[in-house]
Amino acid sequence: MSGIFGCVNQKPKPVLAAMDTAIAHWGSDHHALWYDDQCGLGQRLLFNTPESLYERLPQAIDRPRLTLTAEARLDNRAELCTIFAIPQAEQATTPDSDLILRAYLKWGEACPDHLLGDWSFAIWLPDEQKLFLARDHHGNTNLVYWQQGKEFAFASDPVALYAAGAPRRLNELYLAQVLVSWFAYHGAQTIDLDIQRLPPAHAMTVTAQGIRIWRYWRLEETPVVRLPKRDEYVQGFLEIYDEAVRCRLRSHRPVGTTLSGGLDSGSVTALAAKELAREGKRLTAFTAVPVYDTSATVGPTRFGDETHFATATAAHHPNVDHHLFNSAQVTPVQGIQRALAVVPEPSHAASNYFWMVDLLSRAREMGLGTLLTGQGGNATVSWTGAPALRSPAAAIRYGGWKEGVRRMLPHWLLRPILAARRSGQDWRGTAIHADFAQRIHLAQLRNAAIGQDINLQESWRCPRDCRQAIILPGASQVGAIWARFGALAGLEVRDPTQDKRVMAYTLSIPDEIFDSPNGGDRWIMRAAMDGLLPDEVRLNPLRGRQSADLAERLLAGRDEMESALASVDHSPANLYLDVAKMRQSWRDVETTPSAMTTHRAGSILLRGLLAGFYLNQSRA
């Protein structure tokens, strides 16, 4: 994905030059700047589609006077070309940014409603002294901004804002929420107190009167649809999902996929391979596999080695070139350090960084321009259903009477009960320092959010609540993180499971339809993939466990781990982290590598190290 940036009421020329240098890794194929006395816009271009070769941004027009910069891949090009009466002969040389410009001229600030795909853009209107910015519904883009007085700057990456002068003050609540896996940090806030993110499905204007932000699409308002026959849901789903994958194959360079042994990335790979086979093209698939035996580090419902099932999926499609990689040359600690160079902030997925950075490096070396994932599938295409949340009686049946009562209690009554029970909250499954949590009143803030924040399990009252807590509509940062990783690898990461149409369709399906008539879960996906995935994968009740041999990988680098722990056992990191608890997690791994100690190594040890490295590098 390309990168964009700009500023208002600053000295545009020197500020833009500094931002351009900082964000250079977002696009090496072309770059340009535009500025007047009040505003400056820039773009770093990555050739991500055939039409992008004809794109030259920023673009200024005279009637009306405006200037546009954008990073975009539009998935409804055919529809837009028809609406704008673009001749067939000109469509192949019409970049997506031109369609965004035409959409704005036709619909004004309502234009985001008419754009599908992954995109963000900014439009400067000099006659109104107004900057208009918008970001896609739920895609792999990022857009952050900083305001100081009348000065305003935005960019695809915070590093450009640092170059523009944004300070780096720590957002302590954000840090705490990352450490304890309270996903309320998704949304507008960032790890930098002075930098905000424009969330997915949001638009904003910047004028002399101030900033106005609004949300233009709400997935959670999707109505439930009742169809006469169960098979009709499958047919409708497959048509939309197939189209979402097909749209994301429009790439200037070759396409690859991540391929686990499960249904999400497996279905993306299957549909992509089917479409590319029609064009006589091949598909590169990457599967991360363990170095060590995982039999002792996964539970009875999981498998730790993706090799068998992923290989079966790849073999089912003759045009798939399958690459197994074990990332033996990248330790988990090195993975964190490399990831921090790309996304310099604490994050939830620290235990996966070693294979993620290796995967992207391999994709770049092979000259790929697009990498497909199934990251968002758990709550969309392969939702399991949530029978325990369908009624109080179901809650009792599946979780016992205590669970049933908890689901029936109104939130106003549940809060004081839980507050009394959690008065001595020690955050035992996390690396957060108890003094830090107490100083910012984290337990009280979390308890007060029950019933208001869908990220909290105590807030759930129906299956849709659970799904929204996973999807995080209008707030998710997953796409932004992948966009930043993809930028450094010189490619675009695309996820059809987070397509607007796919998310809306799957959320409209009644929860009980996801139950198989013969028992089991994820029926919609299993039925839709009949013939597209081998049955041993399609009907497999087990789920894969990422980084299942994490404990053994850590044990292979004992000296490195001891050094890493020592490096975070001083200020400022140890003011926020319970390093003693992190050391205990490490000793538990050394004593007994198991499913539990492996899990805690990820949630306590490595997530703590990621935060500690960040704090000592950026805040010392």
Descriptive account of the structure:
The protein has four domains: 3-216, 4-Layer Sandwich (Glutamine Phosphoribosylpyrophosphate, subunit 1, domain 1); 221-384 and 472-548, HUPs (Rossmann fold), CATH 3.40.50.620; 391-461, no CATH class; 551-618. The chain is an alpha/beta fold and 620 residues long. It is built from 26 helices and 19 strands. The strands form four sheets. A six-stranded antiparallel β-sheet has the order 2-3-1-9-8-10, with helices on one face. The mean pLDDT is 95.
Short description:
By secondary structure, the chain is of the alpha/beta class. It has 26 helices and 19 strands. It folds into 4 domains: 3-216, Glutamine Phosphoribosylpyrophosphate, subunit 1, domain 1 (4-Layer Sandwich); 221-384 and 472-548, Rossmann fold (3-Layer(aba) Sandwich), CATH 3.40.50.620; 391-461, no CATH class; 551-618.
